[in-house]
Amino acid sequence: MRKTTYWQDNLRLVGLCLVVWFVASFGFGILGLDWLNQIEINGLQIGFWFAQQGSIYVFVALIFFYAWRMAKIDREHGVEED
C-alpha cells in the first residue's frame, strides 16, 4: 500500500508539471500568441517574447520545482537518498 501512495504522489506531480508545461509552451506560445501580442512592454510584444523565451524560463523553473517537490515526497515516504 505504501508503494502505491508513493507512486500516486509521483504521478500526480508529473501530471501537474506536464499540464503547466503544456499551457506555457502550447497554450501561451501558440494558441494565445495573438492575444498576448496585444500587450507591449517597451515596444516588444509579450506574446513573441513568451513564445521565444518565456516558455524556456517556465520549463527551467519546472525542473527546480519538480526536484524540490520530489525530494519532499521521498522524505514523506521514507525513500530519500543520502
Concise summary:
With 82 residues, the protein is mainly alpha-helical.
Descriptive report:
The structure is a single chain. The chain is mainly α and 82 residues long. It has one domain (2-77). It has helices at 2-31, 33-36, 46-77; strands at 40-41, 44-45. Strands 1-2 form a two-stranded antiparallel sheet. Strand 1 and strand 2 (44-45) form a beta hairpin. The protein is elongated, with a radius of gyration of 17 Å. The model has no long low-confidence stretch (mean pLDDT 89).
List keywords for this structure.
mainly alpha, 82 residues, two-stranded antiparallel sheet
Q: Output the helix-strand order.
A: HHEEH
Share of residues in strands: under 5%
Number of strands: 2
Oligomer: single chain
Reported for the largest beta sheet, the result is: 2 strands, antiparallel
Structural class: mainly alpha
The N- to C-terminal Cα distance equals 24 Å
Overall form:
elongated
Annotate the secondary structure layout.
Elements: H1 2-31, H2 33-36, E1 40-41, E2 44-45, H3 46-77
Antiparallel strand pairs: 1-2
